[in-house]
Write a structure and sequence with these properties.
With about 120 residues, the chain is of the alpha+beta class. The chain contains three helices and five strands, in the order E-E-H-H-E-E-E-H. The protein has a five-stranded mixed beta sheet, sandwiched between helices.
């Protein structure tokens, strides 16, 4: 089993509480406390199936986060007022909340899960 670092998403997680400028608006970037464990659990599961698949999953989540930071308004709002962005190649989505002052990354969820129950635990 791979020993994943505590802060999985590297440069993004070091920006906890930092300011971003998105479409001309200053917003803080925050991660839900369970975000890393979502990624870690899925990456470990994938590594158990194929040696480098967990690493690929983490890379794809990083890319997804890059895309949603660059254009968070691209996705429409769903239940609970949040948005989601699909993770390429994997059946996962990144849920996030966007307000005038903040971009909050809520977590990474497998698409087979009940999104209402999952999101209710995050709010």
């Amino acid at each position: 089993m791979r020993c994943w670092p505590t802060r999985i998403l590297g440069r993004h997680t070091t920006k906890f509480g930092s300011e971003l400028t998105i479409h001309g608006m200053a917003r803080s970037l925050r991660y839900h406390p369970l975000f890393d464990s979502d990624v870690l659990n899925a990456a470990e599961w994938y590594d158990g199936r194929q040696a480098t698949l967990g690493t690929d999953f983490v890379t794809r989540v990083r890319t997804t986060v890059d895309h949603l930071i660059a254009d968070p308004e691209r996705r429409t709002t769903i239940d609970y007022g949040v948005r989601y962005w699909p993770v390429e190649r994997f059946p996962y989505v990144v849920f996030y909340d966007l307000t005038e002052s903040e971009l909050l990354l809520l977590g990474v969820m497998h698409v087979s899960q009940d999104s209402e129950k999952w999101l209710a635990r995050r709010k």
